[in-house]
Amino acid sequence: MMTRPGKVRWALIIAALALLEGACRLGFVSRQTIIAPTAMAAGAWQALGSAEMRGHILITLASVAQSIGLAIVVGFAVGAALYRLPRLRRTLDPFLASYYAVPAFVFYPVFIVLFGLNRWPLVAIGFVFAVTAVIINTLDGLSRVPRGVRRTAAVMKLTPLQHIFFIMLPAAAPWLFTGAKFAVVYSFIGVIAGEFVLSGAGLGHAIAFAYNSFDNATMYGLMLLLFLIVGGINMQLWIWEQRLYARRGGY
Amino acid sequence: MPGAVDIDPAVPAAEHARSRGWSALADTVLLITGMLIVWQVATLIIGHEVLTSPLETARRLSAIMADPDFPAHSWETGRAFGTALIIALAGGLTIGVALGAHRLSGQVAAPILVALYSIPKITLYPVILLLFGLGISAKIAFGVIHGIIPVIIFTMNGVRNINGVYFRAARAMRLSGMQTASNIIVPAALPEIVSGFRIGFSLTLLGTLIGEMFASQRGIGYMLVKAMETNDVATVMALALFLIVLATAASSVLLVIDRRLHQSVIAQSGDSQ
User: Fold this and answer.
1) Ramachandran category for residue A17: left, alpha or beta (phi over 0 → left; psi -120 to 50 → alpha)
2) Cβ atoms within 10 A of the Cβ of A105, count?
3) Residue A192 maps to which CATH number?
4) More confident residue, A110 or B159
5) What's the fold here for domain B61-272?
6) Residue of B nearest to A191 (CA)
7) What is the DSSP string of chain B?
8) CB pairs under 8 A between A and B
9) What predicted TM-score, i.e. pTM, was given to this entire model?
10) Of A84, A187, A183, A184, which Cα lies nearest the Cα of A137?
11) Would residue A22 count as lying in a domain?
C-alpha cells in the first residue's frame, strides 16, 4: 500500500520522464545534448550485455567496496580515539568541519606516485573522501550517548569491553550507521571522480571515454546504470536504517 | 537582591572564558605545528619528488602568487564561486522554505533530494558541458548543483520543525505569504539555515573547482588540473595548501556563527520552559 506522498512522487517522476521523452522524440531538445529516457535505458541494457562494460562496472564496484571497508574501520577507530581525547577533538573540530571544501582528489597524482599505476590510488582517493564523514559521525554518536545510560553501566560494574559492546555501540548505533551510509556515498564519489581524471578502467573512465567519442547512448546508459546502482544501495541502507530506528523504540 | 548573586561570579567567568580562548588558540597552534612535523617527516620518508616539504610548498605558493597571471586566475575562480554561491544560497533558501512550509510537497521531495544528494555529480559533467558549453556558466552550474541541495534539505528540515504556534500566530495576524516567510519562517529556522549554508559553502567551492578542472581554460581548478597532468607535484601541493587555508578559514568563521546561533536558541528555549 503506497502512501499519498509516494503516489504523488511516482506520478511526478513518471511525468518528468514522459515530458523529456516527448521533448526528445519531437525534436525540441538536440539529440547531441540529451537523449530520450527510453534510449538511455536501451543504452544501459546494451552496456550490460557487453563483457567489456561489465568489467568496468565490476572493477569500480570492487574499488568502492575496498574503500568503504577501509573508511569504516579506520574512521571508526580514529573517531573512538578522538572521543577519548576531548582536547585534541576540540582543536580538530574546525578542520573536520571544513574538510569537504577541499577537493581531496587533487592528491590523486601523489597517490599514483606512491602506489603505482593500479587500482590502489583510486581506493585511496575514495578512502580519503569517506573516512572523515565516518570520523565525524562516530564522534557525534559517541558523545550523544546519554549520561544516564553510562552511569547505569558504571553502577553495574561492567568491564571496559562489556561497556563498549553493551552500552556504547548500541546507543550510538544510528550515528555509526549514518557514518557508514556516508562512507558508501563518498567512496563512490571519490573513486568515480578519480576514474574520470586519470584512469584507464572503471565506470568513470568508461563514461568519460563515451563522452569524448560522442557516444551519447553509451554515456547516458552508463550514467543511468551508475545512478541505479548508487540509488539502489542507498535505498537498501535507508530501509535498514528505518528498521534500526524502529527497533530502538523509534523517534 | 537576586541580581547581585548573578553579577558577582560574572567577572571570573569572563576571565575564565578568555583564558580558555587563549589555551584553545595555543592548542590550535600546537596542532598545526604537529601537522607540519608529520608532513615534513612524510616528505623525508617518501621523497620530496612525490611529496614536497612544507617549506618548499610555501615557497612555490608565494612564487605562484607573485606570478602576473595569478590574479586573473583567482579572480575568475572567485567570480564563478561567488555567483554560484549566491544562486545556491538564494535558490536553496527559497525552495527549502517553500517545501518546508507545504507539508505534502516536502514529503514528496525529500527522498528525491536525498537521492540527488548521494549521486556522484561529477558524472553529470558531460551533460553540464553539453547544456552550458565551455566557460564560466558551466562552472557556475557545477557549483550550484553541488551546493544547492544541502541548503534545500537543511532549510526544509528547519522549517518543518518550527513550532506550529508560530504559524497560527502568523495567521491570526493575517500576514501574507511573503511576510510569513520573511518575518516568521526564516528567523525561526535560522540556525538550521546557517548550518545548511555552511555545508552549501563547502560543496559549492568543491563543485566550482571541479567544473574548472574539466570545463575551463582559466581559474585555480584549471591550474590544478594542468599541474596534475604534467605531474608537477610542487604546484599541486601549493594550490591545495592555498585552498585548504582559505576554505578552513571561511568555514571556521561560519562554524562560530553556526554554534552561537544554535546555543542562543537552546538558551532561549531553556528560558521559556
Assistant:
1) alpha
2) 29
3) 1.10.3720.10
4) B159
5) MetI-like fold (1.10.3720)
6) B120
7) -HHHHHHTTHHHHHHHHHHHHHHHHHHHHHHHHHHHHHHHHHHHHH-TTTS--HHHHHHHHHHHHHSTTHHHHHHHHHHHHHHHHHHHHHHHHHHHHHHHHSHHHHHHHHHHHHHHHHS-GGGGHHHHHHHH-SSHHHHHHHHHHHHHHHHHHHHHHHHHTS-HHHHHHHHHTT--HHHIIIIIIHHHTHHHHHHHHHHHHHHHHHHHHHHHHHH-SSSHHHHHHHHHHTT-HHHHHHHHHHHHHHHHHHHHHHHHHHHHHHHHHHHHHHHH-
8) 140
9) 0.81
10) A183
11) no
The closest alpha carbon to A70, from A142, A138, A123, belongs to A123
Residue A10 belongs to some domain of the structure: no
Residue type at A158? L
Predicted local distance difference test score (pLDDT) of residue A65: 94
- Taking contacts as CB-CB distances below 8 angstroms, the residues of chain B near A8 are 104, 108
Asked whether residue A5 is domain-assigned, the answer is: no
pLDDT of residue B269: 53
**Is A78 part of the contact surface with chain B (CB cutoff 8 Å)?**
no
* B273/A contact by beta carbon, under 8 A: no
Residue A66 Cα distances to A121, A218, B244, angstroms: 12, 27, 27
- Write down the pLDDT at residue B89: 94
Structure-block grid coordinates of residue B32: 598545526
> ipTM of the predicted structure?
0.77
Task: Give the residue ranges of DSSP H helices in chain A.
Answer: 4-25, 37-49, 51-84, 86-97, 108-115, 120-143, 147-155, 160-162, 169-197, 203-212, 216-247
Q: Work out the average pLDDT over A163-167.
A: 81
Give the total number of structural domains in chain A. 1
CB B154 within 8 A of CB B96: yes
Is residue A53 assigned to a domain? yes
User: Which of residues 13 through 72 in chain B touch A, CB cutoff 8 A?
Assistant: 24, 27-28, 30-31, 46, 49-51
Q: Do B202 and A193 touch (CB under 8 A)?
A: no
Residue B34 and residue B21: Cα distance in Å, rounded? Answer: 20
Closest CA to A52 of A206, A216, A171: A206
Set of chain B residues whose Cβ sits within 8 Å of the Cβ of A208: 126
DSSP category for residue A50: -
User: Does the structure show a pLDDT above 50 at A154?
Assistant: yes
Rg (CA), chain A: 22
Domain ranges of chain B: 61-272
Range of the domain at A120: 41-86+102-247
